[in-house]
Amino acid sequence: MRNSSTTFVVALAVAAALACAQPARAQTVHLSYSGNSGQNIPFWVTYDSGMFKKYGLNTDLVLISGGLTNIQAVMANEIRFSYLGAASPIQAAVQGADIVILATVYGLMPYGLITGSGIRSAADLKGKRAAVSRIGGIEEVAIRAAIEKLGLGPKDVTFIQAGPDALRIAAVESGSVSAAAVAPPALFTAAARGLHIMADLGALGIKYPTSVIAARRATVAQDRATAKRFLMALIEGLHIFKQKKDYAMQVTAKYTKQNDPQILSQTYDYFAKNVPAMPFTDPSVIEAGLAATEKPGAKSAKDLYDNSLLQELEREGFSQKIAKEVR
To answer: 73: exposed, middle or buried (C-beta count within 10 Å: 0-12, 13-18, 19+)?
Structure first.
């Protein structure tokens, strides 16, 4: 009996040693993004280049249209990390949801206000209809910012929910709406089709958290190691995006179905100059997003984001190491 016990213990020890010797299985992590505009390109590049797998994360990436739907999926633990505009995560956090912003990949408003025939001045827009993908989404924020710059008030335009870029452009062309907000590559497509760009918010340098990583704060606290590996993959993906234009254009064509080389090149150039190597969240950018919520005074910007993992990676020299490797 004693010999049997000894044999069993030895067998367990051998089994444990063999298990440790096996390569760790990649952890499955569900990711989402919220649209097909050009600000998503760095995230697409990160995913398609295999960066998440490189850092031990077996991921799947799904398109979930609309910020609110993404946040609902995150809160239901169906999505671990979501790449989206900050309007929905900020609004959810203001209302008490357990949501935190871990990174900001694009902190400017990249939208252009396009108009159809007969609309050549701000005065022409007064009392007209403007198309957005979803009421309360980032395009509505963009149009409100644009018309404010043009001297109009928020009640001077009526917002109509019209779906994705192609449908909004078609609505402007048909005259069913007078204006819409679109980001590259759709912005350059609209211009090529003869629509007028009344205001380019990107050229104006208007700060806004257009592309952030949102997650449940409790999930990050429980498993910081996975969140850190996710951010390591993202950082390397940003370096690849910034260094490899041709590859980024190929990825853009895959996700947007846009095959015009000039539009793909214009889109890359538009975003690449403002995508950071380290996606720290700037408090002033979050303040801009917070100001657009229904209750802007309910939370302070510092309550909405967490740069601690990125700061840890910066102290470790991670970005500098990756910059030397990605050429």
So the answer is: middle
Q: What is the value of pTM for the model shown?
A: 0.86
Report the SS3 class of residue 27.
strand
> Rounded to an integer, what distance in angstroms lies between the CA atom of residue 53 and that of residue 34?
22
Asked whether 220 and 304 are in contact (CB, 8 A), the reply is: no
Q: Output the tens digit of pLDDT for each of the chain's 327 residues.
A: 444 444 333 333 333 333 333 334 556 899 999 989 999 999 999 999 999 999 999 999 999 988 899 999 999 999 999 999 999 999 999 999 999 999 999 999 999 999 998 898 899 999 999 999 888 778 888 999 899 888 998 899 999 999 889 999 999 999 999 999 999 999 999 999 999 999 998 888 889 999 999 999 999 999 999 999 999 999 999 999 999 999 999 999 999 999 999 999 999 999 999 999 999 999 999 999 998 777 666 688 999 999 999 999 999 999 999 999 987
Backbone angles phi, psi at 326, to 5 degrees: -95, 110
Angle value at C-alpha 106, between 102 and 108, nearest 5 degrees: 125
End-to-end CA distance of the chain: 63
Pick the last residue of a domain from 204, 226, 261: 204
Task: Identify the CATH number of the domain in which residue 245 sits.
Answer: 3.40.190.10
DSSP code, position 23: P
Q: What is the dihedral of CA 27, 96, 306, 86, to 10 degrees?
A: 90
Same-domain pairing of 193 and 218: no
Maximum Cα–Cα distance across the chain: 95
